[in-house]
Amino acid sequence: MSAAARVAAIQLIARKSPVAIASPAIDVPELFGANVFGLDQMRARLPEAAYKALRSCMEHGQELEPALADQVANAMKEWAVERGATHFTHWFQPMTGSTAEKHDSFASLEGGKVLMEFSGKALIKGEPDASSFPSGGLRATFEARGYTAWDPTSPAFIRETTNGATLCIPTAFCSWTGEALDEKTPLLRSAEALNREAVRLLRLLGDHQVNYVYPTLGCEQEYFLIDRDLYLLRPDLVATGRTLFGARPPKGQELEDHYFGSIAPRVLAYMQEVEHELWKLGVPVKTRHNEVAPSQYELAPIFERSTVAVDHNMLCMEVLKQVALRHGFQCLLHEKPYAGINGSGKHNNWSMSTDTGDNLLDPGRSPEANMRFMVMLAAVMRGVDTHADLLRTTIAHAGNDHRLGANEAPPAILSIYLGEQLADVVQALIAGTGRGSDRRGETMRLGVGVLPPLPRDATDRNRTSPFAFTGNKFEFRAVGSSQATAKPNAVLNTIIADSLAHLANEIERLQAQKGLEAAVNEVVADTMKKHQRILFNGNGYSAEWHAEAGKRGLPNFRNAVDAIGNFASKKNVELFERFGVLSAKEAESRMNIMFEAYCKAIAIEGQSALSVARTIILPAAQKSQHEVAVSVMAAKAAGAETKAQEKRLRDMALRIETLVTTIDELASVFEHAESHAGSPQEHAKVYRDKVATAMVRLRECADGLETMVNDADWPLPKYREVLFLQ
Ligand code: ADP
Ligand code: MG
């Protein structure tokens, strides 16, 4: 780390040009899913009966018979080997927030010769050593065994790397006692619960066509790119994913010239290769554009069944990071890589689809479809209002604390945006039960009329809402860019399943005396009335909203530590248990893991801040101070006027003195936090209240020095460089 290295990195950037991919003549339909063992491959490679049996297992989430598993495994292996795979791995999502894999080759020894083999047993079940994955106290290390089980609803795929290829089999990860040790299992369970309750309610509404309902998901993924040579000179970025120091650049994002701007050539070449790779993996990426902050971008796929879309988002994040290296970039997925510059989120577009091809959140053009839509809307309002605390926990982590509630991101208070017209309809419905008429003097009743068409234009969007209705889906915008989306979606599915069950119970209860239509009307109107406090169409960033939300009694958990404690509250455990999504033990262990992850994140940041401040910033500042002192003394000896210069020297010395004091302060609170012996929650509080705050003070001081020290001596790439040089 030296100022010379910084200059050299900048000089290198000037000479970099877009990196070409091997075959730019891309046939997208042919490329799409080329590395996926999908339905086409299954049909082509399996006997008819086996193919049908497998499809049925996939659709109904059933286990494969051993004989069928052997057939599928063999077909999969042959396909994979033809495509250059030598190894396979079960690919799963432990509670680390990322994916895990342990590769085995297909090779087996027989009579001194190597054969490429893959059994049904190896396909359906794996036994990775689970002892080093977080379990939040679920397993004692002496019984640390877990197993991975193929999730046939998510197709196997091949990852190509520089020197080979690996067959990846998406799996769930459980302990031998059947407890979920991953993020995927509760997601699958929640989708099942949603299916059960949605179908039950649809039947009640007179729909006998639908056989199953599944949640859908489209994740808009934001990210930053930084030139890798500059990145490597920032130990804070390397260790923590965000810059712990850095003075404001002369130009930030105030010009608003980056959003939807023309994409820089090196960046576009990168995006094209990312898309290329993702198409091969069957990820339907569709949109690319510049985001609001300098060097910030977004990628969005076409939505899919959420259990698959969650896996695909994990692949997206992996591919974004890996391809970046080939283009001399580092991809930053952290929620807030740069202070004072917009952070990154992941808009979680969520809806429900039927096997008959209907989107349940589409207002529709017939009275029946409209009635169904209003029932679903009531369910979402009730779900988000009743379980806002729980939904808030799913986006609670150290990185997202920099975003939620800050000026550019959705507030930490959950509310629903419906747009003016739909909000009017809801108000009319609510008023309808009370007075028999809406504001226009007509009766607003479900099942008789058609809703006015709801426009989907940009004016009807409110970017400040954490949970916005956007035409035919809800957009949960508070999810962090680096997050795995399994947890927010598992909770979303569960709280909606709960509301669907509640509505079905109520409708059933009233139907006998009033008939279906009147019962539905009453239940929907009552539910909307009861939960209308969750609706808010105004500016979610404003101070007035914070005050108003307080009056309405909406929860406001300002930071991750306050939020996480609700995950395993009595109400939420009861909910998880009722829908078979998590047991009490599983919920509590997850809560502990969230607290632990918070502590670890802040601990790593604290340690990194200390080391950068002590060994990089302080020496650079002292060197500069020395030079200035020598120069002032020389000038003074020559009889020159040096008053202003002396003052400047004293300012600098004072800042350096303060830097040393704040370093010592951070070191001391850090030690205290490390040795703190309390509950996971208390531990996290110490990190939040002592370590994170001491880091802020240290940064303030260091950033001040950055503006004083000779630029030629400053070793860390500056914001103006990391944000603008590509
Ligand atoms: P933006 O919000 O940036 O204007 P869109 O609203 O067009 O963009 O789409 C954002 C994402 O929402 C895309 O990934 C899209 O596939 C997804 N999406 C669209 N319809 C649904 C749906 N029914 N369920 C889930 N996601 C959906
Ligand atoms: Mg969007």
Structure described in brief:
The protein is α+β, with helices and mostly antiparallel strands.
Model description:
This protein has 726 residues and is α+β, with helices and mostly antiparallel strands. It starts with a helix and ends with a helix. Among the domains are: 32-182, Ubiquitin-like (UB roll) (Roll), CATH 3.10.20.70; 596-722, Four Helix Bundle (Hemerythrin (Met), subunit A). Strands 10, 11, 12, 13, 14, 15, 16, 17 and 18 form a 9-stranded mixed sheet that branches. Strands 1, 2, 3, 6, 7, 8 and 9 form a 7-stranded mixed sheet that branches. The chain has 24 helices and 18 strands. Residues 216-218, 220, 300-303, 349-351, 359, 470, 472-473 line the site of adenosine-5'-diphosphate.
Topology:
Layout lengths: L2 H12 L13 H4 L4 E2 L1 H7 L2 H13 L5 H17 L2 E8 L7 E6 L1 E4 L2 E4 L3 H5 E2 L19 E5 L5 E6 L2 E12 L8 H21 L8 E15 H4 L3 H6 L24 H16 L4 E6 L5 E6 L2 E2 H21 L2 E4 L13 E9 L12 H20 L1 H6 L4 H4 L14 E2 L2 H16 L31 E3 L4 E3 L9 H29 L1 H16 L11 H10 L7 H5 L5 H9 L5 H54 L5 H32 L5 H27 L12 H4 L4
Parallel strand pairs: 2-9, 16-17
Antiparallel strand pairs: 1-8, 2-3, 4-5, 6-7, 7-9, 8-9, 10-12, 10-13, 10-14, 10-15, 11-12, 15-18, 17-18
Helix pairs in contact: 7-16, 10-11, 12-16, 12-17, 15-17, 16-17, 21-22, 21-23, 22-23
